[in-house]
Amino acid sequence: MAKWLNTGAALYLLDEPTVGVDVAAKAEIYQELDRLAARGALVIIFSTDLLELQTITHRILVLARGQLVKTLDARQTDHQEILAWATGAVNQQTPAEAVLPAGVAMS
User: Which of 7, 57, 95, 105 is the most buried (most CB within 10 A)?
Assistant: First the structure.
C-alpha cells in the first residue's frame, strides 16, 4: 500500500485499508492518511469497521441497498446510528447532491 500512497494523486480510494494488519501498522496507515489529507488529497475509505470510520474520517456516507441514504458527521454519531441508516431502520433519504463537493454533479 505504501507505494500507492506516495504517488502524489489528488484522490485515494481505499477499501478496508487496515484489515489484517497489526495495531502498529494501523497507526502508521492512519498517520499517512492524515498527511495525504493535510496536503489536500481527497481520501475516501470504504470500511465495515465503524469505530475506525468514526475515528479517522470527517464524514460518513451511509449506503443502503445501493443508495446513499445519509451523511453523518463522524464526530457526532455512534455505531447504532450508522447501523440504523445502513439497515434501513431509518427511512428518510438524503439527496446525493447534498453531500457532493461543490462542482460535482450526479449523472
Answer: 57
- Nearest-Å Rg of the Cα atoms of the chain is 15
Instruction: Give the amino acid at 55.
Output: T
Strand, coil or helix: 86: helix
* Grid coordinates belonging to 89: 431502520
Place of cell 475509505: 45
Q: What is d(CA 45, CA 32) in angstroms, rounded to the nearest whole number?
A: 13
pLDDT (tens digit per residue) in 52-75:
999 999 999 999 888 899 999 999
The whole model's pTM is what?
Answer: 0.72
Contact yes or no for 1/16 (Cβ under 8 A): no
Q: Rounded to whole angstroms, how far apart are CA atoms 7 and 88? A: 38
